[in-house]
Amino acid sequence: TNQWFLPAVRGDIPPGCAAHGFVCDGTRILVFGGMVEYGRYSNDLYELQASRWLWKKVKPQAPLNGSPPCPRLGHSFSLYGNKCYLFGGLANESEDSNNNVPRYLNDFYELELQHGSGVVGWSIPVTKGILPSPRESHTAIVYCRKDVGSPKMYIFGGMCGCRLNDLWELDIETMTWSRPETKGTVPLPRSLHTANVIGNKMYVFGGWVPQSAGGEISAPDGEWKCTGSFSYLNLDTTEWIGLISDCQEDKSNSLPGPRAGHCAVAVGTRLYIWSGRDGYRKAWNNQVCCKDLWYLDTERPLAPSQVQLIRATTNSFQLKWDEVPTVEGYLLQLNADSPVPPVAGIPGTGIPETSVLSSQGGCSVHQSPQSLPSVPYPEMKVDHPSQTNNLIPNNVQVALSSSSKVEGKEKVAAPENKVTQETTKNHADATGFKESNAPSLLPVCTSSAQTSANVGELHDLDKQSVNPDASVSCTVSSTQTMVTQQAVKTEPSSTNGAVVKDETSLTTFNSKSEAAETANVMPSTRVSTGQTNDSHSPRAPQRPVKSRDRRWYDVGIFKNNSAVVSQFYLLPEETLNNSKTEGADVPDYRLLKKQDLFPGTVYRFRVAAINGCGVGPFSKISEFKTCIPGFPGAPSTVKITKSVDCIHLSWEPPASPSGNILEYSAYLAIRSTQLQENPSQLVFMRIYCGLKTSCIVTAAQLSNAHVDYTSRPAIVFRISAKNERGYGPATQVRWLQ
Question: What spans are recorded as compositionally biased (Polar residues) (predicted)?
Fold first, then answer.
């Protein structure tokens, strides 16, 4: 949402401090040392449990072979595994805080953490080699090569009367210090910069550097300035690569300005840079405090998960896929089972370009529906949120509410269908994106601080169903190729279980909330004991087809990870022979015609994520079939209530019965030899058949249940309804264990 909020913290709240050490370990944050006020430094250690916003002052045991760390600022504090590594900093030799006598440090400590919360104590490791010289305001990162597996800590730069640009390496396993030889142009000496690891690269940005062009100043009284220069060190080859030079002009303000004392954090393959200050050392009154937030996409995004089915109708699909962190959107494509005419269908309708600002104040990045040329590396593509252009195809929709009704259809034998749980915002963008082989640096717009719910947040509901949103609910005709999925968990409590409303993947829990679940309905599912014969296995995507059948057509570009698809874009005849490849330019959808989906037709889908570096690789292919009219819908509002020796399974009739319901059937996935040979082939046993909308599952039946581990451990049920034409789609329920 790009929105700041101020959490209501409690507990042993630490005093405000500057130049402290800070590490994040899961959902807890550890803060050590810092300057509390001028001349008065701290050596206190605080822990924040971010899941509860609870502060706690912790008191580590003193080392057996020395004294605990003295009060300091400007030190490095790095996490690897269950240990934090403290190096250097600046102490005050004077007992009088008004009389500051600086002493630069190069001591080295190890802090062992307890799992989840708390610490064990400090220790002073016995190291080999030559220790780095004393310093403060340096950086330290930890990197471990995948093929070698020996973690290394790298210290770069800092201040010791003058700025430094030396690089030091500590082998954490052998506790050996060394100075690695590097290639390339070493960044200027600097302090109060940031260093972050993404992949095998250490990205260094900003800080105080020599003001002279030569960078030869080493005297304490030399002139210094803040810089916006940006480099990275390849940690496998120890080669420095410059991305933004200190003298590079930026008249358009499209790059982060010079700064020091800022903060930077890596999230996935994206680097965020926040705040800092800019100003000459001898002009303190003229310093500029930065309040801007930037991010850098360092590489193309990874492939998303396979496209998953939530709901199908005779002429549309509601689809979703797992989110890829820190992306700007997703390119969704389909392939029709039968040949598609080159330019048949509905004439395209252009949507005027508009600047869309979300209700949470998050700014979209600069996007263009036009095809754009690539930018050669290492030049960086930088965009402004104030120039946002959004093109939204008419056929693009998304789930409009966190409690939206979702329906799907399928026989109990299921093809490759996935359904997941997610609450989504009520807006989607479909836009074109620039692409580049270089990292992309973009500013981020944020809104003022306030407390708000995040997208995708699940709320606990006590003994109540989730009402469907009328704006997205609809009558759904039947098909024989899909299973709508739910995930529930029951636990002993006053609510006695969980409630799932309709076929949405929104799950409501009792007071002990669980995270959203995703499960796979695997292909070639087997059903035992009385299963009807009108189900079928999915078509194999690898089957031989004519080349014309395998063309991929754009559905659109979506900001969120879900969409309702009723049409797709047809390519002009002259471009049909050019297959869509990863990173290809996105066409201007306003110039393309559209084709409606047909009933009873198989469509294959794939999706790719997009960030500032371009379009990433496509996901694996999923295959779904639009509905055939006349069959009943899937049962809804499934409830599971646990008793001592059994569970009670209940549901409501389909929202779209399409005739009189003759009977319901409930099935339980059971253990079998086929599962051991092929875990993707679930075997189901019918445990109920009748007119009632509830049944009892005995302990004896549960003892034979198969526990599905495709995501979180769960027992799988399926429930379907039958009318005069036969059984409709099944609602699949994953009962979390």
Answer: 521-535
Contact of 499 with 443, CB cutoff 8 Å? no
Q: Where a domain ends, among 238, 269, 297?
A: 297
pLDDT in tens, 68-104: 999 999 999 999 999 999 999 999 998 887 888 999 9
Cα separation, 326 vs 324, in Å, equals: 7
Give SS3 for 267.
strand
Side chain identity at 406, as an amino acid letter?
A: V
Tell me, yes or no, whether 596 and 664 share the same domain. Answer: no
DSSP letters spanning 205-234: E--EEESSSS----STT--EEEB--EEEEE
pLDDT in tens, 434-471: 334 445 566 665 544 332 222 222 222 222 232 333 22
Task: Say how far apart CA 115 and CA 159 lie, in whole Å.
Answer: 34
- For residue 333, what is the domain's CATH number? 2.60.40.10
Do residues 607 and 675 both lie within one domain? Answer: no
What gap in Å lies between CA 69 and CA 107, rounded to an integer?
8
Domain assignment present for 562? yes
Q: CA distances (Å), 545 to each of 193, 444, 578, in order?
A: 57, 46, 18
**Pair (598, 650) in one structural domain:** no
Closest among 170, 160, 167, 252 to 208, alpha carbons compared: 160
As for how many domains the chain has, the answer is 3
8 A C-beta contact, residue 71 and residue 35: no
H-assigned helices in 49-157: none
- Both 668 and 606 in a single domain? no
DSSP three-state, residue 513:
coil
What are the residues whose beta carbons fall under 8 Å from the beta carbon of 682, sequence distance 6 or more? 522, 525, 526, 669, 675, 706, 708, 716
How many residues make up the chain in this entry? 737
Before 378, cis peptide (omega within 30)?
A: yes
**What is the CA 478 to chain-centroid distance, rounded?**
34
| Structural domain boundaries, residue 86 | 10-211+223-297
Distance between CA atoms of 348 and 393, rounded to whole angstroms? 9
Same domain, 127 and 266: yes
Cα–Cα distance for residue pair 665/663, rounded to 1 Å: 7
Q: What is the tens place of the pLDDT at every residue in 479-515?
A: 333 444 444 444 333 322 233 333 322 222 222 222 2
Residue 492's nearest CA partner among 477, 479, 514, 511 is 511
Interatomic CA distance for residues 598 and 339, integer angstroms: 12
- Residue matched to tokens 């949402």: 1
- In the numeric block, which tokens belong to residue 346? 């509905």
β-strands 614-618, 602-611 pairing? antiparallel
What pTM did the predictor assign? Answer: 0.66
* CA dist., res. 204 & res. 195, Å (int): 5
Integer Cα distance of 560 and 307 in angstroms = 13
How much of the chain, in percent, has pLDDT values that exceed 70?
66
Same-domain pairing of 268 and 325: no
Residues 563, 667, single domain; the answer is no
DSSP secondary structure, 383-443, as one string = --GGG--B---TTEE---STT--------SS--SEEEE-----S----------SS-EEEE
Non-local CB neighbours of 52 within 8 Å, separated by 6+ positions: none
